[in-house]
Design brief:
The protein is mainly β and 165 residues long. The chain has one domain (11-164): Lipocalin (Beta Barrel), CATH 2.40.128.20. The protein has strands spanning 21-30, 36-46, 53-61, 70-81, 86-93, 97-106, 109-119, 127-137, 140-149, 155-164. Strands 1-2-3-4-5-6-7-8-9-10 form a 10-stranded antiparallel beta barrel. The chain starts with 20 loop residues before the first strand and ends with a strand. InterPro entries: Calycin (IPR012674), Nb(III)_bact/plant (IPR022939), Nitrobindin (IPR045165), THAP4-like_heme-bd (IPR014878). A motif (GXWXGXG) lies at residues 21-27.
Amino acid sequence: MDIEVPEGLNPELTALGWLVGRWEGTGNGTDHDGNDFEFEQRIEFNHNGGNYLYYVAQTFLITEEGAEPTPFGMETGFWHPKPDASVEVVLANSDGWTEVLVGKIAVTRIDLLTDAVVRTEGAEVTHSAGQRLYGKVEGDLMYALDRATTEHELRPHMWARLKRV
């Protein structure tokens, strides 16, 4: 098993140590109107000695060939692992909502479900619930994000395979 523990990592974060670093790659998605899209993504997980990882993800739409990718969204947050292999995640999204997710860590797999969502009045997406799966596969970070809105039930939204850079 390829488990990494970065230097200086708070021992309480050992279960999430494999996430630490910068990840980049491309993925696919389906928007809330059912249209397919491709995107580039940059994700960074880092630590500062506290009992949490901090996280930033930026997504850029891939448009016509040769065109510069268009900013699509950004989120930032904090990942808090617990001694019982559970994890709590708090995310703020540039589209105007904040989400609390809870889940389980199983070595290099993390399953998350929405516990709560708060949206601003001007939120671009009426996000209401979600589930996420993160995993390390052949050294890459793979994830799938399913989302529900006030207009539709939970369904696949974005999925990607990212390489450590």
